[in-house]
Specification:
Elements (H helix, E strand, L loop, with lengths): L1 E3 H7 L3 H11 L5 E6 L3 E6 L2 H5 L5 E3 L4 E3 L12 H18 L1 H10 L4 H24 L2
Antiparallel strand pairs: 1-3, 2-3, 4-5
Helix pairs in contact: 4-5, 4-6
């Protein structure tokens, strides 16, 4: 796997610290530094699929590729499926207890909230079955 040096710089990690960070997130996977040049580092793992299934890697369903966030602070602490669950739970509470706001949102589309909520629900509808399948077939 090739990781751009820009990501390491934004994390304030050296290549060795990044590998240590990945190994702390991955319980059973050995990760080694293969090579390092000014723009990229190359790492290898004894089980790439297992490594990519866990934090801090995200999977993009639209182009079937894995990616890393560019800021260290935005790395997930919980599994991705829990973030979807928490947002869905919050939306259900809004729908149930803030019915005036919810009805106005659905009828008038007067704020920028509707497109965000709609996009989240669309992506979650596709991603949750994938994440559950991946979780069950570890």
């Amino acid at each position: 796997m090739v990781v751009p040096e820009q990501i390491l710089s934004s994390y304030h990690f050296t290549a060795e610290r990044f590998i240590t960070f990945l190994q702390s997130k991955q319980n059973t996977v050995n990760i080694d530094l293969v090579s390092q040049d000014p723009r990229n580092i190359k790492i290898k793992s004894n089980n790439n699929e297992s490594m990519l299934r866990n934090a801090p890697f995200y999977f993009n369903l639209s182009n079937q590729s894995y990616y890393l966030k560019t800021q260290k602070e935005s790395l997930m602490i919980l599994p991705e499926i829990l973030y979807h669950y928490l947002l869905l739970y919050n939306l259900s509470m809004i729908c149930r207890y803030e019915t005036d706001w919810w009805c106005e949102l659905l009828q008038t589309f007067s704020t920028d909230d509707y497109p965000l909520i709609n996009q989240f629900l669309t992506s979650t509808e596709q991603k949750i079955p994938f994440l559950i399948h991946r979780l069950l077939t570890l």
